Each structure stands twice: as C-alpha cells, then as structure tokens.
C-alpha cells in the first residue's frame, strides 16, 4: 500500500472543528454530520476538516495528544524502551503532517510539535530496521509487531516481504537434489 | 449483464422515489452502515431518508446515527475488504454484496447530485464523499481484476472444482471476464506460435505455465478476534515448529498460508 493510501485511510478519522458557518445536518453515505453552527465544535472526518479549512470556513482543534509536553513524554518513553511504545493515535504521523501543513495557524507551537513527532518517528523507524534485520538473520517464521502504525509498517513492509519471499525461493530451490546439477557443463 | 442489472437497479430506485414523494413517512432511527443497511428490509425507505435537500427528508431525525459510529463501523466493512484484497497474495472470495450495496448508494447519491446546483456547500461535501468511496470501490475491483489476469487458469480451476453450495470466489461478471480472458489468451498463443509448431508440441497447459499465487508470501495482519494454537512452520530444518496465540488487537508478520482461513472468516485483517 502506498503512503498516499495510508493517508487516505487516516483522513477517515474524526477530528473536531469550530465552523464559522451554519448548515443543517447532512446525511452522507458513511453517516450523519452536523448540524453546523458558528462557534460550536463539531466532529467531522479529517478530509472534510481540511477541505473546510482550505476554504477558510472553520478552525481546527488539534487532537489532545498534539501537545508539546505530551509529545516530549512520548519521545522520551520511545527512546528509553527497547520495544515499540503505544502511540496516541494509529495515524499520528499522518495527522501531524496534514494538520501542520494545512492548519498550522490553529496549532500552538507547530514547529516544536513537528520536530517532536519527527524525532519519535525516527526512533521508531530505527527500531523497526533493527528488528527487521534480526528477523531476517534468525530466519524467523513469525513476528509480533504490536503498536506499530500502518504508516510505519508500510514504509518497510513491501520491501521486507518481497525480500523474504525471494530468500524463501532461493532456499527451497537449493534443498532438493543438491546444488551441483545445473552448474556442470 | 452488468449494465442490465444496473438499469434494473436504477428503475427500482425511480419507483421507490415516486412512491415516497406521495406519502409522508417517519423514522425513529435507521441504521447507516453499509451492509446492515442493505439487509434490513425496508431499505429503500431508509435510503431515501438519508438523502439531502429533497422534499422527503425525514421529519424525525435519527437518534442514534452519529457520524463517528456510523462512519467507522459501516465503512470498516468495505474498507477492510479493500485492504484484505490489496494485501493477500491470492484472490479472496468476492464481496459482491458489499460492492452492489455501495454501487447502489453511489448511483442514488449521484442521481440526486445531478439535480442540485453546482456551488452549494452541501452538494460539494456530498460530491467529495462520493469521489472518495468511488476511489475505494474501483481500487478494490481493480486489484481483483489484476489478480484474475495474473492467475486466471488457477482461478478458473478453483471455480470448476468448487462444490455445490460453496460460495464462489468470483462475481458473475468476474467469472465472465476470466473465461473470456482465458479464451483470448489461448487463441492468441495459438495464432502467434502454436499452429506453426510440430503437431506434437501444439498443446499447452496454461495451468502449468501460469504461475500460481504465492501462498508462502509474508503478510502483516491485525487480529480482530482472539485465536489460539496457530501452528507456525519452521523456516529452516534446524528449527522446530511451534504454536502461537493471536491476541485481540495484536499485530503480526507471518506467512499467508498459515492464516488464510482466518482472513476468509474475518477473524484477522491484513494491513
């Protein structure tokens, strides 16, 4: 799955906005939204929130975890522990990226948040590389990957699985009948 | 065949629409998520009530239909079918029920959108949602077609050996497509090369020359219902096989073959 598709999935997640227009309840195929009243917070999926924001029709309320103190804690925890720590949102990276790109003016200390999330991400990806490496070395048949988010899995996933498939093919082709057969001329 | 069915669906919609404009109706609440929505009996009524800005908007607004719940649960079904199909190495059972339901809703919404003016905020939100769903739908169908084109002899073989009562992995349209693809490939091979070969070499077994889906492929998955005692085969001869439990909400990297039945039953989802 491509990064853009993971982002697409993240855009389905709800986020709170404060609209500056009024609109009755609307009945989307996926569920109901609204009613929208100026100044009253309402939950909408991220794709709509960003669209409304781009048309300057609302103010975005950042999710609770998007806060410098909380993110600092998360970063420290991630650095101190050898395993993956649970993330505040399964789409934390996508949320950060989208919100900071399109609604940076609604988020206090946007730059610090960007750095903190990036640090956490880097730590996690480094861990992921290490564990993928040991997985391949020890020729394991199963791995447990709790707390990894979809985006993280998809950065290494396709490459890793293809590599494993190739190695498997090479190995299974070697075993029957020894290796000398086709090399003799 | 496909077009005919679409036509029939549209006609049905037109009928219900006509009925509904004549009589007022009231709802206590309705279920919004994709599949349940189709299965509940007076679904056309429900569907009509969900449309916007028309004369038949329900007088009583739904009580329990918050966007979050309706949205996440309802689309979880079709989104998951999409992701499973994307990640699994073999062709999964066709979810034609969901597909039809989604198509039906999209057609309906588009019909209504045609009647509205362009610049309306409401209409543009609806249009955006329709686009998003359409994307998922076509991506799902495309990944299926890609697999059918890649593994067509095996897909058809599986379809042939299927016992009575067992659900088909192909929708009728896909079956027609696969058969045609097979016939065309055979004709092509024959015309281009085979008929110029010596008679004893003119036969070709597509089942043997087209690669099978690689069920040994590794996949990532997330557990939805706890599973116990999954047998993991060893990678090398020195290792011995062992048993693992799949806890709810845990994530794993494992061979597709090991957990294929769990994907089919919906106990795990591929990510």
Automatic annotation (TrEMBL), chain A:
Q: What is its main location?
A: nucleus
Instruction: Please tell me whether the keyword Nucleus is annotated for this protein.
Output: yes
One GO location term (cellular component): CMG complex
Top-level taxon of the source organism = Eukaryota
Domain DNA replication complex GINS protein PSF2 N-terminal, by residue range, is 3-61
- What are the subcellular locations of this protein? Nucleus
Q: Which UniProt keywords apply?
A: DNA replication, Nucleus
Q: Which GO terms describe its biological process?
A: DNA replication; double-strand break repair via break-induced replication
UniProt domain GINS subunit: residue ranges: 65-169
Q: Which Pfam families match?
A: PSF2_N (PF25005), Sld5 (PF05916)
Q: What does this protein do?
A: Required for correct functioning of the GINS complex, a complex that plays an essential role in the initiation of DNA replication, and progression of DNA replication forks. GINS complex is a core component of CDC45-MCM-GINS (CMG) helicase, the molecular machine that unwinds template DNA during replication, and around which the replisome is built.
Subunit composition and interactions:
Component of the GINS complex.
**Belongs to which family?**
Belongs to the GINS2/PSF2 family.
Q: What is this protein called?
A: DNA replication complex GINS protein PSF2
Please give the organism.
Anolis carolinensis (Green anole)
TrEMBL record, chain B:
Q: Which GO terms describe its cellular component?
A: CMG complex; cytoplasm; GINS complex
GINS subunit domain location is 121-192
Where the record annotates domain DNA replication complex GINS protein SLD5 C-terminal, the positions are 213-271
On the tree of life, the source organism's domain of life is: Eukaryota
UniProt KW keywords: Chromosome, DNA replication, Nucleus
Q: Which PANTHER family match?
A: DNA REPLICATION COMPLEX GINS PROTEIN SLD5, SLD5 PROTEIN
The compartments listed are: Chromosome; Nucleus
User: Is Nucleus tagged as a keyword?
Assistant: yes
Q: Which CDD domains match?
A: GINS_A_Sld5, GINS_B_Sld5
Pfam families referenced in this protein's UniProt entry, alphabetically: Sld5, SLD5_C
Q: What is its main location?
A: nucleus
- Keyword Nucleus set for record: yes
Annotated GO biological processes are:
DNA-templated DNA replication; double-strand break repair via break-induced replication
Name the family the entry cites: Belongs to the GINS4/SLD5 family.
Q: What is this protein called?
A: DNA replication complex GINS protein SLD5
Query: What is the primary gene name for this protein?
Result: GINS4
């Amino acid at each position: 799955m491509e990064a853009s598709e993971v982002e697409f999935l993240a855009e389905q997640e709800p986020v709170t906005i404060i609209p500056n227009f009024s609109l009755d309840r609307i009945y989307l195929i996926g569920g109901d939204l609204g009613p929208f009243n100026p100044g009253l917070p309402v939950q909408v999926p991220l794709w709509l929130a960003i669209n409304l924001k781009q048309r300057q029709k609302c103010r975005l309320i950042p999710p609770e975890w998007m806060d410098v103190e909380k993110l600092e804690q998360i970063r420290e925890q991630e650095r101190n522990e050898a395993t993956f720590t649970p993330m505040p949102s399964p789409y934390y990276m996508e949320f950060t990226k989208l919100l900071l790109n399109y609604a940076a003016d609604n988020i206090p200390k946007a730059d610090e948040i960007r750095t903190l999330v990036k640090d956490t991400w880097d730590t996690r990806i480094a861990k992921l590389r290490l564990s993928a490496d040991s997985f391949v070395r020890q020729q394991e048949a199963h791995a447990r990957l709790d707390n990894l988010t979809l985006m993280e899995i998809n950065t290494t996933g396709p490459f890793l699985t293809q590599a494993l498939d190739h190695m498997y093919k090479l190995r299974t082709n070697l075993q029957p009948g020894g290796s000398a057969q086709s090399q003799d001329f | 065949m496909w077009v005919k069915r679409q036509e029939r669906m549209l006609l049905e919609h037109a009928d219900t629409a006509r009925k509904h404009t004549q009589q007022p109706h009231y709802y206590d609440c309705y279920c919004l998520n994709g599949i349940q929505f189709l299965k509940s009996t007076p679904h056309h009524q429900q569907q009509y009530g969900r449309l916007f800005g028309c004369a038949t908007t329900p007088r009583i607004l739904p009580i329990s239909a918050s966007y979050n719940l309706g949205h996440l649960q309802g689309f979880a079904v079709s989104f998951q079918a999409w992701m499973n199909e994307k990640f699994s190495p073999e062709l999964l059972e066709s979810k034609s029920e969901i597909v039809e339901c989604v198509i039906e809703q999209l057609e309906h919404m588009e019909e209504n959108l045609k009647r509205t003016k362009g610049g309306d905020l409401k209409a543009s939100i609806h249009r955006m949602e329709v686009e998003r769903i359409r994307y998922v739908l076509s991506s799902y169908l495309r990944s299926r077609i890609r697999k059918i084109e890649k593994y067509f002899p095996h897909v058809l073989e599986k379809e042939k050996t299927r016992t009575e009562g067992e659900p088909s992995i192909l929708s009728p349209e896909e079956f027609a497509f696969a058969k045609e693809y097979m016939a065309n490939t055979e004709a092509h091979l024959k015309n281009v090369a085979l008929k110029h070969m010596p008679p004893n070499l003119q036969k070709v077994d597509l089942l043997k020359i087209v690669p099978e889906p690689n069920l040994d492929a590794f996949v990532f998955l997330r557990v939805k219902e706890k599973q116990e005692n999954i047998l993991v085969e060893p990678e090398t001869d020195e290792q011995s096989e062992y048993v693992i439990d799949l806890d709810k909400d845990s994530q794993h990297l494992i061979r597709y073959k090991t957990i294929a039945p769990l994907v089919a039953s919906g106990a795990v989802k591929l990510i």
